[in-house]
């Protein structure tokens, strides 16, 4: 007798059955890590009841006011962001506060990208994320739904 208790069955969902969904999230006074994990969860499609791990659920997220993101403790001065061009001696190190002045979107991009899968699907999902440093965005014709994350 075969034991079928430990199997998970996934309904066959066509890519044509999935509709584009647009959400808008305000990052004003939100905690960086908590916001990033919730955005990655929604972007992946896990909040939907027809979640399929290997399919792109066509969820687009717009994040506004990224320059007003909050972090706790002394991370504003102590957290470092590193990048390297590949040439010897070209390691660039920047603190959170300096990167937030120069490119406030990069902080959220790096945080959310690290929480997505490291494969083709993760790269597709990351392209569906739009981040803006203030509250002006060019996606009003998509009629995004406002999500309040607490």
Automatic annotation (TrEMBL):
Any Pfam family hit: Ribosomal_L13
Record keywords, A-Z: Plastid, Ribonucleoprotein, Ribosomal protein
Domain of life: Eukaryota
Keyword Ribonucleoprotein set for record: yes
Coiled coil: none
GO biological process: negative regulation of translation; translation
Entry's Gene Ontology cellular component terms: cytosolic large ribosomal subunit
SUPFAM superfamilies per UniProt: Ribosomal protein L13 (SSF52161)
Annotated GO MF terms: mRNA binding; structural constituent of ribosome
Similarity comment: family membership: Belongs to the universal ribosomal protein uL13 family.
Name of the protein in its database record: Ribosomal protein L13
Species name: Dasysiphonia japonica
Encoding gene (name): rpl13
